[in-house]
Amino acid sequence: MTGPRKVAVVGVALSDCGRVDEATPYALHAQAARRALADAGLGREVVDGFASAGLGTLAPVEVAEYLGLRPAWADSTSVGGSTWEVMAAHAADAIAAGHANAVLLVYGSTARADIRAGRRTGNLSFGARGPLQFEVPYGHTLIAKYAMAARRHMIEHGTTIEQLAEVAVQARANAALNPEAMFRTPITVDEVLSGPMIADPFTKLHCCIRSDGGAAVLLAAEEYVRDCRTAPVWVLGTGECLSHATMSEWEDFTVSPAAVSGRLAFRRAGVTPSDVDFAEIYDAFTYMTLVTLEDLGFCAKGEGGAFVEKGRLRVAGGELPVNTDGGGLSAQHPGMRGLFLLVEAVRQLRGEAGERQVRRAGGGLPELGVASGTGGWFCSSGTVVLGRG
């Protein structure tokens, strides 16, 4: 091998998503994996690397066994919603170095169905062990941490609740173009603001939906591309960053770790934010979209509110379509949603997004897209720059 190999995404797929009452999480993993391999036109015998998190006592060993895989390279990194962008970065590095040839990333969850069936309850927190023990006595719920960060941004930069609501409105407008989205009925800013309060300043529609579903992404070395039935989408640059576990150690609530992961990914890809045609951003809450747009460099710090209020995030007529499938606010959110961002980005770059397809000026397909995942309460970030060329 004379140098690092180029790495491409050659297969992507979703399992059944939305309301899936009869499947197990293992079954959703398997369904997504089979569909991604079929999308690539490759058999599972080519898979020598595997990455999964969030299921089983020995993740990803149990899931690999369920899928009938015996990988020689594995990753079980678990950093919340950004897990899959971080895993994609690790997989791309391993393939480029020759440590693996084809790596399958898989996720599946029945978060919604489990609650409906009484098998689990909603997560109010991540527990009270370790450093978190010093916050739990003060009543910090999971959502309250996001809400507190949003309020800080509002105080420091004048961001308004109407501007945050616009993120939800535009996500729903994109979801209306996606037949696979769980919620497609248009909403207004007034409807977002008048909903039941969940954690000030977030009302219900500021918060992600809860769904079932799974996703899979297959990355492979450049020599496998000629055997695939789909056009390759190349991994151009990646970045990752860990920030904090406790809110007391977060230096600035208005800056997310995407400020680091994004800078690294763009630099390694040799591009700038202005070159990007669309962005898939983790959106468990509206504030996550707004602050990540700032930290990735699509607008200056403090200008996110003004940036989103002008309809820029819409597929139809937006300057920078964001969360083109409807995102976690409207399409699906079964838990750690980062893998869904990669699936949607690849579909957009391959021109397979149907009515929600992003087009460049003149009608051409997009050339560059970015997927940026966030984990925990802005505890981690992973960013991946993808391109068709």
Automatic annotation (TrEMBL):
CDD domains: SCP-x_thiolase (cd00829)
Domain Thiolase C-terminal positions: 239-388
Entries under SUPFAM superfamilies matching the protein: Thiolase-like
Protein's name in the database: Acetyl-CoA acetyltransferase
